[in-house]
Amino acid sequence: MNATAEREVLTYELFGTAVRELAQQIVDSGYEPDIVLAVARGGLGLAMGLGYALDVKNLSAVNVEFYTGVDQRLEMPVMLPPTPQAVDLSGLRVLIVDDVADTGHTLVSVQEFCADHVAEARSAVVYGKPHTVVKADYVWRRTDRWIDFPWSSQPPLVDRRGGLAH
């Protein structure tokens, strides 16, 4: 079996379908977020798409570092500056979005960041993994495979740690 067959492959076209279907799940549940909070980088595209589909113009992002490579991660996720001011989230219904709930630790860290300030926080992900420590409220697909996202399936053109990529 080749490496590609062992992976979940998401194309840009399929990502568009995922955004609309997740948006429909959210609408059907009756949840009306005041703000869409993206977990950068993976959740940025989803936040934009859901913002349009749900007619939410208030978008923000938190940058959380966890993965350093395929199946390589830090011990715990680290929220990097700048972070939204807690006062900016006060009393709002927040939709936290990310590309995948793998271990779930990234979502937990963002939920904990929001917990004492927001009226309600729910989460949406394109993919949920079976071993995640937190179940997202809205999940497009579930898989136990590594996921090739269209924006990260090829190496970067530039290696910021050392010049041009090869």
Automatic annotation (TrEMBL):
Source taxon at top rank: Bacteria
GO molecular function: glycosyltransferase activity
Keyword line: Glycosyltransferase, Transferase
InterPro entries hit by this protein: PRTase-like, PRTase_dom
Occurrences of domain Phosphoribosyltransferase (ranges): 12-152
Statement: the UniProt record of this protein carries the keyword Glycosyltransferase: yes
PANTHER family: HYPOXANTHINE PHOSPHORIBOSYLTRANSFERASE, HYPOXANTHINE-GUANINE PHOSPHORIBOSYLTRANSFERASE
Protein name: Phosphoribosyltransferase
